[in-house]
Amino acid sequence: MKLWNTTAAILIVAFFISCDQKVEEKETTTNNLEETIRETNEIRYQAWNTGNPDLMEAQLSDDFVRYANGDIEFEGKSGYTNLMNMYLTGFPDLHFEYELVAVKNNKSFTKWTATGTNAGMFNGAPATGNQIMVHGFSVITYNDEGKIIKEEAYMDNLKAYTSIGYSLAPPNVD
């Protein structure tokens, strides 16, 4: 009976040590991924603020998907390059301020403000010279290598478009 108690005690201690090591390994892996995500975010911010779509593309996974205000906007890296080129053509001085950044597991959460002057063609319309200030929020999901697999961006498009001269007409109900 004493041998049985000693064996049981050894097994219980071994079990708890093993569980503790697995928790520490998971925490280390999570902390490493979160640090990688922070670094990727800094590069993403730099890509937008220096107008460098190639730098952004390097941060995206091959199966990247972007959602805007809840709807799929595009899939793939080339879609992001096109998006950046459209905004950077219309607003050559486009600048993002990142006001709140939080990282949890494989996601980052960012509150941002974009400012710029409509000095070029934007969405097929000529430059107005008007300034924009748009507030938004992005939820970014990363794979295990720290590459971006999904962006969910939320912003007030109506404010952005009216600030550069678009107007919203009431519907024609005739």
TrEMBL record:
It comes from the Bacteria. GO terms for biological process: polyketide metabolic process. It holds the Pfam family SnoaL. InterPro entries: Cyclase_SnoaL-like, NTF2-like_dom_sf. PROSITE patterns: PROKAR_LIPOPROTEIN. This is SnoaL-like domain-containing protein.
